[in-house]
Write a structure and sequence with these properties.
mainly alpha, 3 strands, elongated
């Protein structure tokens, strides 16, 4: 969904339903209303319900639900009615609904039809939220292509993975291993450090290394790191 202040872009609520559920629309609308009440966005919104076929859809609708569908506020998609199954749109829907074992193959099919950055970001977002029980390493293994590795979500996953490895190394007493990982993480984020700054980090006690590892994700420029190091040295 777009940022709440992006008033020119609508909010899309997408729900995939592959099992018959007579309460589906009430539950879907309840989640939408909860979000709208909490966030109070200024922009318009649209709900998209995806079913494998018309038979899986709710058979008997209330007057209110039917009005929302008639107005276009709720859009229903039946996958078995797609005529052009080679289209990027259909393949994106297939990615949302396919099992984990087929995800990589579907991603490659989508990539063969487009290389647009917005599509790549959307692919990655789908995979991250579609498989929440996968470890970060398992998710990372699905992104074997260079263009996917440049997308925003993957970089965040990689950053969190490094952060977790750093914390585990420090907590288990392997100070040198944790220090090497921290320096490598800093180098990936800001480039090579001057020797005096690397020495400054290497001299930090264990508790300070842990603090730096936690603070690093919040740094946006190299000056943030230098300011933190100078404060740590003077405290």
């Amino acid at each position: 969904m777009p940022p709440i202040d992006a008033v020119n872009e609508p909010i899309y609520f997408i729900e995939v339903q592959f099992q018959p559920n007579p309460d589906f629309y009430w539950q879907f609308l309840g989640e939408i209303c909860l979000y709208l009440n909490q966030q109070q966005p200024l922009q318009d919104w649209l709900a998209v319900a995806i079913f494998p076929d018309r038979q899986t859809d709710v058979a008997k609708l209330s007057v209110f639900q039917q009005e929302l569908i008639n107005s276009g506020r709720i859009v229903r998609i039946y996958l078995n009615q797609f005529n052009d199954r080679s289209s990027v749109e259909f393949k994106m829907l297939n990615l949302i609904t396919c099992p984990q074992s087929e995800a990589v193959a579907v991603v490659n099919q989508i990539r063969s039809g487009t290389r647009a950055e917005v599509i790549l970001d959307f692919i990655e977002t789908i995979l991250v939220y579609k498989f929440p029980k996968l470890s970060r390493e398992e998710i990372e293994a699905m992104f074997t292509l260079d263009d996917l590795r440049q997308t925003r979500v993957f970089q965040e996953i990689q950053q969190e993975s490094l952060q977790r490895g750093l914390q585990q190394g420090l907590q288990q007493g392997r100070r040198e291993e944790g220090l090497k990982l921290l320096l490598r993480q800093i180098s990936r984020k800001f480039g090579a450090l001057p020797p005096d700054r690397s020495a400054q980090i290497s001299a930090l006690p264990l508790d300070r290394l842990e603090e730096l590892g936690e603070s690093l994700l919040d740094f946006t420029t190299i000056d943030d790191l230098y300011t933190w190091l100078d404060r740590a040295e003077n405290s």
